Structures
1.
Amino acid sequence: EVRLVESGGGVVQTGGSLTLSCVVSDFRKGRFCQAWFRQAPGKKREKVADLVGREDTAKYADFVKGRFTMSRNNDNNTVYLQMNNLQPEDSAEYYCAADDRWSEYLARCESPELWGQGIQVTVSS
């Protein structure tokens, strides 16, 4: 069974920073794409950033461009999300996701199969 385990969430003031980490127990199972999603109470889940294949540069949602950076370390099977200049509207449960299907590679992880348990990020105003 492949497990994705997030860490690094918490409470931060407006303008602060956090780095989320996600360890993938078997990176082969999530090798084609990795992504970070978030969901705030009462809102739909939205994708924050994704990496596909051997890319080094992630693709970002407009609402985090210039503030968030997604990266991957294949040596320790970990995906990161560096979040800077956090705003109250960034408060949400954050999830990492991954997939090894070619269809998800093409779709840039729009509907990944593998999910972490989620981790809370709260930005206080």
2.
Amino acid sequence: QVQLVESGGGSVQTGGSLRLSCAATELTYASYCMAWFRQAPGKEREGVAAIYRFGGSPDYADSVKGRFTISQVNVDNTAYLQMNGLKVEDSAMYYCATRRTGGHCGLSVYGYADWGQGTQVTVSS
């Protein structure tokens, strides 16, 4: 069973940066996507960014385009989310997820079967 462990969360001020990491083990899918989602208190979980194992243009939520960058190191099945220009509204629990795919990733929670426990990101003004 796929196991995902997130790290790198923390507290920063507006405009600051954080880099989240997601380490995947037992990830044996031949073709898959790795993605980041977030959930703030009282809100639904939303997709932030997703990347296909074999490249192509990542998917980003409109709210993070130009500020966040997702990347992946295939050798060790690790995904990263570089977050720059953080805003208060970026505060949330951030989750890593994976899904099998033939090439399309997407940011819908329903497509992803494997989830990590999350890492908290708090941005203060």
3.
Amino acid sequence: QLVESGGGVVQAGGSLRLTCAGSGRPLRYYAVGWFRQSPGQERKVVAIISWSGEKTDVADSVKGRFAISRDNTENKVFLQMSSLTPGDTAVYSCGAGTIPYFEPQYYYDMNYWGNGTLVTVSS
């Protein structure tokens, strides 16, 4: 399925790069999104990238700080996070889906999910 890595503990202002790897599943056919969920809150999309990498969308809350990219030859999608704040603390998961249109109403229609990786930002 999907395997996330790169989470950990970082101080506020620091950076992390998360990786989503397709384990036995080629990601190049799918749009892939990064989502995060904090305790007591709903899972929210952070960033998403089309199957070709030509289209990306980033949530307003992280725009200018987070960037999503993909390398289909490596079967991986990355989330580069910088200027992290304690508010970014969450479990980050990746999802892959064959969404019909690259529009927000479809961003949660993922066919496959990873188990997530914890990002903790200390103040």
